[in-house]
Each structure stands twice: as structure tokens, then as C-alpha cells.
Target: Branched-chain amino acid transport system permease protein
Amino acid sequence: MSSAPAGVAGALRRANRWGVLEILLWILAVAAWFFLPEQHLILAEIVNFAILALSLDLILGYAGIVSLGQSAMYGVGAYAAGLFSAHVTGEPLSGLLVGGLAGAAVAFLTGFLLLRGADLTRLMVTLGVAAVFMEIANQADWLTGGADGLQGVETAPLFGLFEFDIFGRTAYAYSLGVLFVLIVVARIVLASPFGYSLRAIRDNPLRASAVGIPVNPRLIAIYTLGGAYAGIAGALFTQTQMFVSLDALSFQKSADGLMILTIGGTGYLYGGVVGALVYKLIQDVLSNLTPQYWQFWIGLLLVAFVLIGRERPRALVRAVSIRLARLFAGKAASRRVAEEKP
Model:
């Protein structure tokens, strides 16, 4: 009887191991701080998008909860961090915690509405929740600044040593560190029995309920965690930009998260990271080439992703890799035969 739990624990530990590509990705991200000093601002923005996409992937890719309302948690987290900075203290880590708690609170309080419908209903409910919070922020201009944005946001030096400047050096390093911590936490959660129960709920909620998995509490729990991640992303945006406006609560912010996941893929942690990198770089390049029509090309790219899919490029890369491996193996065998001849 004891061998079965030990086997499960071993499988969970193996699933939580870091791969070579993951390590290489983080090495490149750190190296970018040293070798791309002029791109720190855009890199910090990419990391912010990645955290937003990660928050959506937790609920969509692993639990199957479709949502168009991540901007509600993102915006509330952004305003909470901004108000905390303007009226309490600009210390960044405590402001980040406030933003995460605010996003989690919004997700927890509104998450019960998601249990009362299917995918289409959930889409409309999450969209409506985001619209409600945006209108509240717009009307409460005495608190949020309304359409003019929240004023007086100041971010203190990180750990009292590293100031946030206009070049984004501290902002990128700070954002990258936050993303690393969030991915580590997400890996631990998703590689646990709780994480695997979410996959079972995503694949077949009725079957998951039949085998004893508490479906609704698990959905609320992961939705709250996703809201905390979105709130942290919003707080991070406020702290690095030292400004927050109604755009943080707009539908465009939720749409950005969905587009990033469409590019990067759902159901694995680095889909949001890869998608944010591709999306932001393409947006930056196209906005310089065609400032008026860059959204057209982004839309065309998304259509191509939907029509072509990801399996064909992956199959092509796999086939090329196999062909190259066989080619090099054949050359090595021919060389050995030639060396063995007298």
C-alpha cells in the first residue's frame, strides 16, 4: 500500500523538474538585462503582459474557465497599488502584495457567478464584471482620477537601493524577478494533486465530480489564484509606470491576454511568456513600419495561427530535426567505416 503513494509522489516530483529549454529561457532573459540596455522598457512591458497571460492561462488552460474579465482583477490591482502608493507608502513589495490581494478578492467575490452557467454565460458574466468595475472607476473620479488617471503615484527605490528610472533598468529586473517567483509558485501548484484535479475538471467536469473531486470549490480556488496573479500584474504596471488610468480596466486589456495565449498556446506555463514576447515584438515592429495599420497585421497573424495551428509547425520542426540527426549520424558512421579500412 505504501508503494503507491511513493510512486505518485515521485511522479509529481519528476513533473516539477526544470527542463533545459526553461533554464535556457531564463538565462537569455537575464542576459537581456546586460546586453540590451536600450530595450529595458519594452522588456518590462513584455514581462507584464506575460504575467497577465499567465493569470489567464491558470484558469483557461488548466481549469477550462473561459473569461473576458481579467481586466477587472488587473485594473483593481493596479488602482489598489496606486492608491496604496499615493496615500500610504510607495514601497514596491508591499504595494505588490496589496495589488495581488485586491485582485484575489475581486476574483473570489465574483467567482461564484461563474458556477451558474456554461462557457458562453461565463464569457458574458466576466465581461459584465469588468465593465461594472470600469464604470465604478470612471464615476469615482474623486478617488481614481476618472478619465484623467490616478495622480501622485510614486514608487520608492527597491529594497531602498535601486531607484526606478526612465530607462527601465530597475523596472525590468524587478518585473523579471516577480515573474520568476510567480512561475515557481504556479509550477508547485499545478504539479500537485490539486493541479491534476483541475485538469480532470477541465476535461470532464461530470466525471471529475463522480470520482469525488469537489468541482466548484476547486474552480473558485484557481479563479482566485488567477485573480491574484492578474492583480499583481496590474500592480506591477502601476509601480513601473507610476501612473494608472481607465485603460487598465478596459476590454482591450482582457483581449490582449487572450491574443497572447492564442499565439503562445494554453495549458503550459511558458505559453504566456512566449506569446507576450512574440506579440509585443511584432506590435513594436509593425507600429514602426505601418503606424496606422499594425492592428490589421496582428489580426492577420492571429487568423494564420487559427488556420494553420501549432501542430504543423511543430511537426515540421520535428521532421527537420530528425532529418538533420539522421544526416549527421550517417556522416559519422561513414567516417568510422573509412577510418576502420586499412
About this structure: The chain has a mean pLDDT of 82. Residues 15-293 form a domain with the ABC transporter involved in vitamin B12 uptake, BtuC fold (CATH 1.10.3470).
